[in-house]
């Protein structure tokens, strides 16, 4: 899942070397924390959050077969 998030975000940003995806697993959920360069935050979120919503949709769909709930936080 971490590789999927990096693959989706890399073409969107100007500083792909600053992409960091941290994983926090709990009993009922897995949370992915996505951090990008401060200049690229707007590109990842998009107008009215459309790009962020699309990224979350893909990540949630990819993890739908998992027993744990998946969350994506953009820092």
UniProtKB/TrEMBL annotation:
This is RNA-binding protein KhpA. HAMAP family: KhpA (MF_00088). The keyword RNA-binding applies. GO terms for biological process: cell wall organization; peptidoglycan biosynthetic process; regulation of cell shape. Forms a complex with KhpB. Gene3D superfamilies: 3.30.300.20. PANTHER family: RNA-BINDING PROTEIN KHPA (PTHR34654:SF1), UPF0109 PROTEIN SCO5592 (PTHR34654). One of its GO terms (cellular component) is cytoplasm. It is found in: Cytoplasm. Pfam families: KH_KhpA-B. Keywords: Cell shape, Cell wall biogenesis/degradation, Chaperone, Cytoplasm, RNA-binding. Belongs to the KhpA RNA-binding protein family. A probable RNA chaperone. Forms a complex with KhpB which binds to cellular RNA and controls its expression. Plays a role in peptidoglycan (PG) homeostasis and cell length regulation. One of its GO terms (molecular function) is RNA binding.
């Amino acid at each position: 899942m971490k590789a999927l998030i990096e693959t989706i975000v890399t073409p969107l940003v100007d500083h792909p070397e600053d992409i960091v995806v941290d994983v926090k697993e709990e009993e009922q959920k897995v949370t992915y924390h996505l951090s990008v360069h401060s200049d690229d935050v707007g590109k990842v979120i998009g107008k009215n959050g459309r790009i962020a919503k699309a990224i979350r949709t893909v990540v949630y769909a990819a993890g739908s077969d998992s027993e744990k709930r998946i969350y994506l936080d953009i820092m």
